[in-house]
Amino acid sequence: MTANNKECPVCHAGLVPGLQDWHLKCPACRYESAALEPVINSDPAHEMIDEQAREDGLRALRVSNFTTLLERIKSKRSSGRLLEVGCAHGWFLELAQQSFEVVGIEPDKAVVEAVSHKGLPVRQGYFPQALDAHERFDVIVFNDVIEHIPDITQVIEQCHRHLNDGGLLVLNLPSSDGVFYRLSKLLARLSLRNPFERLWQKGLPSPHVHYFNRRNLEQLITRHDFVTMTDGKLPTLSLDGLHARISYTGDLGRFSRAFIYTCVALSLPILNRLPGDIFYSISQKKAG
């Protein structure tokens, strides 16, 4: 991939080289892209991750954020069919099934096998191929997923196709305006690339290939006949599960893990007041 043959999916300006040879950015709308290849069902890629530590590290924060997000959704639509794309461990579906008829799609075979005992209606595969052509939903949710999907334009078009008129598209994703992401870019410019690569999840089974902020994401979904109803930020970190989250890739020594944990723990009250690294957008499909 080169900047010469790539255009921004938001505003169609030409992308220019970024901070590494795989990183591209839009000089017009500040969208960012990465030429990183997903290897979701590759055994070597999974060997890089301690899945139990990852689950322990993410559960408390994700469930808290999912509870908040679900309340925002229910304030706009309180029932109907809900599809979660990339449902992972099923935490969001478990909460949502109390109000909605839920369906999940998850491409990672190992994760689907791990959650099969929960009895959730999860299909192994990719969106939209895992759906029947005529299936329709009232809510489609992407929790920390849309940033991993290379052809984002096609995905949003398919969301429009599979939503009923007035249906909701819910995106929960990392923000390029966040304090940690901005700090990682500063460090990358000083040749300290590890934090930047970690936030893009370089080398992991499903790396990030997009970074948006609220403004350029709204531009993108507006072009596909959605209207933003509400958006906001969600907490990025909590002390519960933080050590496991720092440790799950196994690429840090004991001293480094302890140092990072201590710094983050002491800084957490301040960090929560700064621009967030996670935001959500709830938009509605235009009728017609």
Describe this structure in words.
The protein is an alpha/beta fold and 288 residues long. Helices cover 36% and strands 21% of the residues. It has two domains: 1-35, no CATH class; 36-285, Rossmann fold (3-Layer(aba) Sandwich). It has a seven-stranded mixed beta sheet with strand order 6-5-4-7-8-11-10, sandwiched between helices. Helix 5 links the parallel strand 7 and strand 8. The chain is globular. The mean pLDDT is 87.
Q: What is the average of the pLDDT values?
A: 87
Q: Write the H/E string, N to C.
A: EEEHHEHEHEEHEHHEHEHHE
Number of domains: 2
Order the strands across the largest sheet as they lie in space. 6-5-4-7-8-11-10
Q: Characterize the overall form.
A: globular
CATH topology group of the largest domain: Rossmann fold
Radius of gyration: 19 Å
What is the count of β-strands?
11
Distance between the termini: 37 Å
In terms of per-residue confidence, which ranges show pLDDT below 50 for 5 or more consecutive residues? none
Name given to the CATH architecture of the largest domain: 3-Layer(aba) Sandwich
Helical fraction equals 25-40%
CATH class of the largest domain: Alpha Beta
Q: Provide a count of the helices.
A: 10
Strand content: 15-25%
Brief descriptors of the model:
288 residues; alpha/beta; Rossmann fold; 7-stranded mixed β-sheet; 4-stranded antiparallel β-sheet; 11 strands; 21% strand
Q: Could you write a compact summary of the structure shown?
A:
The protein is an alpha/beta fold and 288 residues long. It has helices at residues 43-47, 51-74, 91-96, 109-115, 152-162, 179-189, 194-199, 214-223, 242-247, 254-271, and strands at residues 16-17, 23-25, 32-34, 81-85, 101-106, 122-124, 137-143, 163-174, 210-211, 226-234, 278-285. It folds into two domains: 1-35, no CATH class; 36-285, Rossmann fold (3-Layer(aba) Sandwich), CATH 3.40.50.150.
